[in-house]
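Worked problem 6 (solution included).
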Amino acid sequence: MKNLLDELAWRGMVHDTTPDLVSHFNKGLVKGYIGFDPTAASLHIGNLATIMLLKHLQLAGHQPYALVGGATGMIGDPSGKSKERNLLDEPTLRSNQAGVRSQLEKFLDFDCGENSARMINNYDWFKEIGFLDFLRNVGKHLSVNYMMAKDSVKTRIAAEGKGISFTEFSYQLLQAYDFCHLFKEEGVTLQMGGSDQWGNITSGTELIRRMEGCEAFALTTPLLTKADGNKFGKSEAGNVWLDPNLTSPYKFYQFWLNIADTEIAKVLRVFTLLPKLEIESLEQEHATNPNALKKIIAKDITIRVHSEKDYQNAVNASEILFKKSGVTEILQTLDEKLLLEVFEGVDRYNVSRDALSVKPNILTFLAEQTSIFSSKGEARKMISNGGVSINKQKVNDINAIVDFTLLQDKYLLVQKGKKNYFLVEAN
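Solution. The predicted structure is:
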């Protein structure tokens, strides 16, 4: 089997491990799991870092388990949170679980023999356990002092005016029991997660030691942060989701193109499956051209999360903004949603279809019907200098008429100078 810990270490994906994990891997197939609380309808690229742990586990010949927390998702994990979460109802959680499952299936092989990935839901066992039974049989094994010593709890208690409810305080014990249940019923001996999960995970190894008299193991990966210390995986609009309905493939692709140069090496190692020698070769080849590396990253991740077609559409859409010629045909093929995403935030004007049907003079259109230019004189000067395009076609004649095919039978794209765009909607 592939040496998993060495692979993860050079990728910078090991933060903490329990002792003797190397020898444990050397004994044969290891079953390991990561939990995903379905508190949103989609996973985001912050989750992708831990999904890659499961992927590498499977590639190394071991068996990955993805636990969707249908039960613990009703509580909410306090780790890394400064205030109480909103509790979700069961129908919402079930809907979210379906979305999470479909995304995980893109990364893990669920039909490859003995190390096929498995999807499990902790609601399946928690629904059978009564409150008093849980307190008697499980709760007595971990003291309050032990649980309060965990950083996730101490941080919340220390937060001025915040505190922590018993509901969220109990999350640690529930997650610990998940590990214990999987150890007993499935032979799962390893739990993995982000570094903020260390306290919850080691509570599980301790519970297994006390309830079963056996050893279990833990591995965490560093939380990915930007140079400013904020969580990696968020854009100005919020989380970058894996669901194309929440973050479009175009915006997803653009996110990777716009990462900071200082994040390139980290992202190449954590989010791609490119081997060490290839990554080092790429870094050397593009040492003076970081944008080339960003394109490689964006291509790799967009295809794996979405599809080859989505990637190509995103590339085509990006070229509209940056290529000087040969993009008119691409522009005509964009659907309305993608067109509006590419030109999100540009000034928009409305013109009646009747006004366009008479094929107005270009100066009248630019200065009077739309006010893109303050006067016909300004428009005339810009056209004469080659600074006006409509639907990416250069306008060279100040006496030209507006006779362009509407994009999506609805829009005209006007470009003024190199960087100023305007959308004109016919209605």
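Discussion: Residues 209 and 215 are 6 Å apart (CA to CA).
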